[in-house]
């Protein structure tokens, strides 16, 4: 029978891994945003072969499920690292690679494609008249970037970027497949210990929901503040 007290106890146990899950998601968000910015910049250069290669890579990442990519990286990255380090006569044991590192690499690459789209969209929303006005006032390139372009891009990109953060948090539930414990994995472990899987997953759902509500509130406040500050 469904036990509300077990839900509460599971909720407390699951909360213990929330900081780790959020920290992991934050690392992935920063890395994917950095990679996305690099992709956007390289694409803006319009280098023929490079542009086509990036296009194929983006298509592959969009069309391949995260779970497949996770297993691909899980089995290939240690071997690639061992081969690469072997070129410099550095011994590396493929089995010693931490699973958390594999999760970070996988999801950073996966979501860099979406982050590049977010950055490109934010750049396209820029008012070019403001840039020209700043240049006519004698602003240097650095000043135009710091005072005109970056503030506008951040305001435009913030909602989508933070949505990506929420998506990453939920996507980390796949990390359990390579033994990394996040919110979902903790719920499974708690459920297995008490044979109360329903209560554990109900508790996990409330944890995910609570994180979503809290982050959405913070993001809305931050976005409004940035828009007022820039207006």
From TrEMBL:
UniProt key word Chloroplast:
no
Q: Which PROSITE patterns match?
A: ABC_TM1
Subcellular locations according to the entry: Cell membrane; Membrane
Q: Where is the ABC transmembrane type-1 domain?
A: 18-219
Q: Which residues cross the membrane?
A: 22-42, 68-90, 96-114, 164-185, 197-219
Q: Is Ion transport among this UniProt entry's keywords?
A: yes
| PANTHER family hit by this protein | L-CYSTINE TRANSPORT SYSTEM PERMEASE PROTEIN TCYL, MEMBRANE COMPONENT OF AMINO ACID ABC TRANSPORTER
Family statement drawn from the similarity comment of this UniProt entry: Belongs to the binding-protein-dependent transport system permease family.
What name is this protein filed under? Amino acid ABC transporter permease
Organism annotation: Salinicoccus bachuensis
């Amino acid at each position: 029978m469904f036990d509300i007290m077990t839900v509460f106890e599971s909720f407390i146990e699951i909360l213990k891994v929330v900081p780790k899950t959020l920290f992991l998601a934050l690392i992935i968000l920063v890395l994917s945003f950095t990679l996305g910015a690099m992709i956007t910049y390289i694409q803006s250069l319009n280098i023929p072969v490079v542009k086509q290669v990036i296009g194929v890579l983006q298509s592959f990442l969009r069309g391949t499920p995260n779970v497949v990519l996770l297993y691909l990286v899980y089995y290939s990255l240690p071997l690639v690292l061992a081969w690469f380090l072997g070129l410099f006569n550095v011994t590396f044991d493929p089995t010693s690679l931490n699973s958390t590192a594999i999760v970070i690499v996988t999801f950073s690459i996966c979501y860099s494609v979406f982050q590049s789209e977010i950055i490109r969209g934010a750049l396209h929303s820029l008012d070019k008249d403001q840039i020209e006005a700043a240049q006519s006032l004698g602003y240097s390139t650095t000043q135009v970037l710091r005072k005109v372009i970056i503030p506008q891009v951040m305001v435009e990109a913030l909602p989508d970027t933070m949505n990506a953060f929420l998506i990453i948090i939920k996507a980390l539930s796949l990390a359990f497949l390579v033994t990394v414990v996040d919110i979902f994995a903790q719920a499974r472990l708690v459920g297995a210990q008490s044979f109360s899987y329903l209560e554990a997953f109900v508790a996990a759902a409330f944890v995910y929901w609570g994180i979503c509500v809290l982050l959405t509130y913070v993001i809305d406040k931050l976005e409004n503040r940035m828009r007022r500050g820039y207006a």
